[in-house]
Amino acid sequence: MSNLNLDISERNNTIIITLSGSADMAQAGDLKSKLEKTPLTDKNVIIDMGSLEFIASMGLGGLIFIHQLCLQQKTSFKLVNPQGAVAKVLKTTQLDQLFDIYSSIDEALAEL
Amino acid sequence: MPTQSYRDIEIPSDYHRAKEVEDAIIDSAQSHGYHEDDLFALRLSLEEALTNAIRHGNAGDREKKVILRYYINENQADIYVADEGPGFDPTAVPDPTITENLSQPNGRGILLMRAYMNLVEYNDTGNVVHMVKLNSKP
User: Fold this and answer.
1) What is the ipTM score, two decimals?
2) Cβ distance B52 to B87 under 8 Å?
3) Cα–Cα distance for residue pair A40/A110, rounded to 1 Å
4) Which residues pair with A10 in a beta bridge?
């Protein structure tokens, strides 16, 4: 399973974080430090999960951290396109009820 | 019937070392022909058990060990993960799926292990978790 990669871009006051690879325990520290360096203040956040192959509790904790940050600063947090096994993890933990989930970045942007 | 022999591995409380062991177990399951869904379930449950052992059981103390004892054959993967912590009561962990707990950053490991494995049980102290995953296509 491949290492976790983050691609970060910005559109319409929205930080778009595209995750690919595996959000596992060995990558969690790296993920946290990259997210902490990303200027999210007063920004909406969209996480594109379409190429994410694996996520466990530590990765879910990272998503919840950003979700809570967005709630506090009254911006939007949206997930896009979780696939197969990753979508099943969200459903099993019922985080699919906490997060707004869309099928594409454009669809998520349209709802901001 | 031949006796199945367990393999024992001891590692420090280190996520990268734990990931190496996790990868080795997944490779072994793959070589025994486990289905892709079973491999994901095994990886996820190992990840949760090892994370709990390092972060909660051993409180991140690298001097404390995590001990794995496992065997894998074409029928099942049988895995014990032990830490050197004081243990805990798994029945006292709040349900992470109820509305007021959904935003909690932690507390989903046991839920995920129980959802993805065929057996999850703890010793009386709560510092050893035993998990079994059956190969769905033996």
Assistant:
1) 0.93
2) no
3) 19
4) A15
Question: Domain-by-domain residue ranges, chain A?
Answer: 5-104
Taking only the tens place, the pLDDT of each residue in B12-36 is 999 999 999 999 999 999 999 999 9
For the domain made up of B7-134, give the CATH fold: Heat Shock Protein 90 (3.30.565)
Confidence at B3, pLDDT banded by 50, 70, 90: low
Q: In angstroms, rounded to a whole number, what is the distance separating the alpha carbons of residues A80 and A88? A: 14
d(CA B127, CA B67): 11
**Cβ neighbours of A14 (radius 10 Å):** 18
Residues of B near A (Cβ–Cβ under 8 Å) read: 15-16, 18-19, 22-23, 37, 40, 43-44, 47-48, 50-51, 54, 96-97, 102-106, 108-109, 111-112, 115-116
- How far B59 CA sits from the closest chain A CA (Å)? 15
Name the residue ranges covered by the structural domains of chain B: 7-134
B103–A68 CB contact, under 8 Å: yes
Tokens of B2: 């031949």
- CATH code 3.40.50.1580 for A5-104: no
In this complex, the residue of A54, A68, A93 whose CB is nearest that of residue B108 is A93
